[in-house]
Each structure stands twice: as C-alpha cells, then as structure tokens.
C-alpha cells in the first residue's frame, strides 16, 4: 500500500515542483536582487546590526528581534538536519550548491516579504497586529485579488497540518529517538492495520502529542513563552558543526569541489546514482525553501507583529533569517555530511545520514554524538511544530473571519496530526511537505512579482530619507 501511495505522491511532487515553480521562485529573487542592487549583500551588515537593536517606537505586539525569533523558531527545524540529508541523498552533493544559490536570492525575497507584511498589516483596537501574504495580496493588489489571498490561506493551513508543521517534524523526532534508543527495533509492537513499530516510536508520539497539546491549548502567548526558552538550544547544532569542520578542516576543499561538480554534473560525483542536474537543482531548491521558507509566505505572518514603523527596517531584519538558517546552518550541516561520506552510506536515510556524519566527524563517542544530535532535533522540531500552529491559525483566522470554534477544532486536528506523524514513511512525509510548500508558494510569489515595484520604491525612499539624516554613519 505504501509503495502505491509513495508512487502517487512522487508524481504529484514532480508536477508541483517542476521547472515552472522553480523558475518562478528563483526569478522572483533574481528580479528583486537586480532591481535593488544586490541589497542582500550591501545591507547585510546593517541588517545584522538591526537584528539585535530594537526600535523604540512603532505599532505592533513584539520587538523586531522577537518577531525574528518567532520566525526562526518555526524555520530552524528538521530541514536543517534531516532536510539537508534528504536533499543530498536524492540529488547528490550538488543539491547543497543549489540550496545555497536559492537562499542567496531568497534573501531578497524574504526582505520583500517582511517589508510588505508591515506596510499592509492591520492593527486592531486591541493593538493586535495581523498581516502576511493574505493582507498584502488583498490590500496591495486590490480586493479583486482576494480569491488569491484565500487560496494562500487555505494552503497555509494545509502546510501546517500536513507539511512542515506536523508530519515531517514529528517523523524526524521519532526517527532520531528510535535511532538512539532502539536502532535495531529490539522492542517492537504490532499495530493492527498500520505495521510493526519500535516501542520508542509509540512512546515518543504519545509524549510529544501531550506536550504539544499542553502548549497549544494555552494559546499564542504560551507558544511564544515556550519558544523563547527553547530557541537558545539552536546554538548547540552550530557549535557541533563548527567543531566537526575544524576537526576535518583538510577535507573541506575536496568537499567544496564535490559539491560544485555535483551541482552541474551529478553523475560524475555519484556514478549515475541520483540522475541529472535538474534533479539536483529541484531537490536543492525544494529543501532550501522548506528550510528557510523564502518565497513561501510564512515568515511575513510573524514579521507583521513586529513593533516598528519602518517596513524597510523589518524587511532587513527578516532577511537575516534566511542568511542564518540556510547560508550558515544548512551549509555547515551539508558540508559535514559530504566530507564524512555519510551521503554515500547505503541503507541510511533522513536523520540517520546526519547522525552518521556526526559520529564519524566529531572527536567524541558515537553515543554522545548521536544523543546531542537527537536533542537538537527534538528541540528544533518541537519549536517548529508550535510556530507553524501559530502561522496556520492566522491563516484560518483570515479564512474563517476569526471563528473561534473553527480555530479550536483546528488545534485538535493539529494535535492528531502530531500523533500519527511517526507512523508515516520518511519519503511520504517529505514528499507531502514539498507538495504543500509548492502550492503555498505560488500565490505568494505572484504577489511578490506584482508588488515588486512597491518594494523597490519603499526601499529607495527609505534609504534616501535616512541618508539625508546621516543615520548610517
């Protein structure tokens, strides 16, 4: 049964993530990069400075840094650990090259998303800031495009329920826990109609479902409080990768050569195992967007809540999210996988690939390396589950006219999806996530193209105005 399902999902995925969508997303980033004079390079130092320097005035619910942390908590997840591994496994080392290229142009896209989110947001009488693609489509493009805004909101709900938010995150957690505590499935149980699973998977799914339920039922404030506690653990993965790369510094040049060769001629590197340059590009772009969400339209929902009066400023802060997520973290993870040869090990998939890389490359025992990676994955994925509930609830608010009953029902469906996630195959989980990511990106990228002139005008006006005030000395 699973083979038939996987085959069908793969066909749908290949159609959704065909050349037209990849061209749409990359072209959007290239267009903005050219029209704004490579802003993601020129203004990156300023963006990093403003990332930690909050604005004193402005409407909104959280600081600019708080909005970025909310977006990062939802963005930095299994994509940084499992997503990179599956991209390299399916598209070869060259997929990492295309992931980085997509992220470079994606920084311009993320800038535009953050800018538009603040420019077109709605702040109600309770100072509750609402914004995101559905608002900049409706208010920026005009009410005649409201149908497109609703399509985005619908797919946003689906991404949360079936894609990034639940299945892929929970599946990644369950795989990591099983790989550490019961790699040989010594303690297994037969679940009628589903299959045989390790008790560690069953117990992990129950504990995770309860934890998610306790947080989500407490509402958005509890989500934010928990995320603020968990986010600092993200630094652990960066530190582990840094240690691994330093310990294997002699292999880094060869790893870079392998990655670049694999980007343009995968068969020369893989021996014909993974196919063509198009496959490497497809997997790299798809996993890159899964990881950093540039062009997807999710981060603007968080950016809209920032306390700021300057859309350009929040755009720059939002842009740093893609830089941190993909160009720093995913690159480090990918290099670790390539230089240790983890991607060439037969029989390994998903988190097992990254675990192998850490066990081989770190100067610590295999058990400790596996435990630390499992810990990172659990925390990363947990915050992503919470963050995507926030995103998808905002989409549902827009679609249902803030119907509280609909939101409550959705929360329980979300918790149910978390519970069943571990029992799905890794391939099916990531294919479903890719499909809904692609569908969600389409209306958002249409809006980015349509409103690119607004983005360019706002940017020029802002820097001209502040240059005159000598604020960038």
What does the model show?
By secondary structure, the protein is mainly alpha-helical. The protein contains 23 helices and four strands. The protein has helices at residues 2-16, 19-35, 39-42, 44-51, 64-75, 78-91, 94-119, 133-140, 146-162, 167-181, 199-216, 220-230, 234-247, 252-264, 266-270, 277-292, 299-303, 311-339, 351-361, 366-400, 404-420, 426-450, 452-468; strands at 122-123, 129-130, 188-191, 195-198. The chain has a two-stranded antiparallel ribbon with strand order 1-2. A two-stranded antiparallel sheet has the order 3-4. β3 and β4 (195-198) form a beta hairpin. The longest helix has 35 residues, at 366-400.
Keywords:
two-stranded antiparallel ribbon; mainly alpha; 23 helices; 473 residues; 4 strands; 74% helix; globular
Helicity range: over 70%
Pick out the low-confidence regions. none
Write down the secondary-structure element order.
Answer: HHHHHHHEEHHHEEHHHHHHHHHHHHH
Instruction: From the alpha carbons, calculate the radius of gyration and give it in angstroms.
Output: 21 Å
- Overall residue-averaged pLDDT value: 82
Tally of helical runs: 23
Number of strands: 4
Instruction: Output the strand order for the largest sheet.
Output: 1-2
Which word captures the global form? globular
Based on secondary structure, the structural category is mainly alpha
Give the distance, in angstroms, between the N- and C-terminal Cα atoms. Answer: 64 Å
Strand content: under 5%
Sheet having the most strands: 2 strands, antiparallel
